[in-house]
Automatic annotation (TrEMBL):
Transmembrane region(s): none
Limits of the Flavodoxin-like fold domain: 3-183
Keyword Oxidoreductase: yes
Gene Ontology CC terms: cytosol
Alphabetized UniProt keyword annotations: Oxidoreductase
Protein name stated in the entry: Flavodoxin-like fold domain-containing protein
Amino acid sequence: MRKVLIINGHPDSESFCHALQQSYKKGSLKNNNQVRGTTLSEMKFNPNLIYGYRKRMELEPDLLEAWDNTKSADHIVWIYPTWWSSLPALMKGFVDRLFLPRLAYEYTEKSPLPKKLLKGKTSEIISTLDTPVWYYKYIMDDVGGKLLRVNIGDVCGIKNKNTTYLSAMRKSTPEQQKEWLEKVERLARR
């Protein structure tokens, strides 16, 4: 049994990402996994890292709970819409506020590279796009995916196992969306 954390980065609780979150949860529960969800649209926190790393901001209760869920998870699933080639601002703020030095990684005197404090965890990315997947990956350089896989994952020790892009959201029919929901449920059962 794995402990799965699903992070829904869409700021609208009625979005298709919410349906994707529910489908992943359904599939994961069929595998007898323990599933928790972090839905950013329901959280109350300041997404601005006001002082950078110069001065620590206290984590609000919702961020403390999200951190507890992150620490206890074996597998983290990121679900979000790709906007302007990257994460929604709320999700970027969540990452800025939560994946902090001395929590998710730390620098030591012995190495110029940070020590990975979340080593052993895995992740998966599921994102909706309006552009064709090939264009996003090869022309737009997969900015959001790289941010989660490399900038956050590699620095903190989280190994990404899979990235799924669902496109084109703006042209999708109810039938296509149903297929995507079924696909995401199957992904969760692997």
